[in-house]
Amino acid sequence: MRPRKPAIRTCIGCATSEDKREVVRFVRTPDGTVEVDETGKANGRGAYVHATLECFELAIRKRKIASALRANVSEDDIGRLRADFERALRHRGALANEDGDA
Ligand SMILES: [Zn+2]
């Protein structure tokens, strides 16, 4: 067994593989809604997107999150997911002061 095997995930936005630490996980909860999984450990079907708004928008516009998770993603869901995703990026320091709300 090799020590420290890297955990690789594929971004559904740009379809590039990346270290697990560089992606944000989305999860389909047991009741069928899609949520941002900031812990990366929530139960349910998951999909990964780079921690960038570019990849999030790609994944949303091409409906890749919906198809990867086999879930319905409404316009309301998209707004909620975008807000949660941006918050997750801020927690990582990946979106520092970009929208000037400091
Ligand atoms: Zn990506």
Overview of the molecule:
By secondary structure, the protein is of the alpha+beta class. It contains three helices and five strands. The model has no long low-confidence stretch (mean pLDDT 89). The structure holds zinc ion. Zinc ion (ZN) binds at residues 11, 13-14, 16, 50, 55.
CATH class: Alpha Beta
In the sheet with the most strands, the strands line up as 4-3-5
Looking at the structure, the CATH topology is Hypothetical Cytosolic Protein, Chain: A
- How far apart the termini lie comes to 47 Å
Characterize the overall form.
globular
Secondary structure: number of strands = 5
Mean pLDDT: 89
Bound molecules: zinc ion
Task: Supply the number of structural domains.
Answer: 1
CATH architecture label = 2-Layer Sandwich
Short description:
The chain contains 3 helices and 5 strands.
Layout of strands and helices, then pairs:
Elements lengths: L7 E3 L6 E3 L3 E6 L5 E4 L8 E5 L2 H9 L2 H6 L5 H18 L10
Antiparallel strand pairs: 1-2, 3-4, 3-5
Note the main attributes of this structure.
three-stranded antiparallel β-sheet; Hypothetical Cytosolic Protein, Chain: A; alpha+beta; 32% helix; 3 helices; binds zinc ion; 102 residues; two-stranded antiparallel sheet
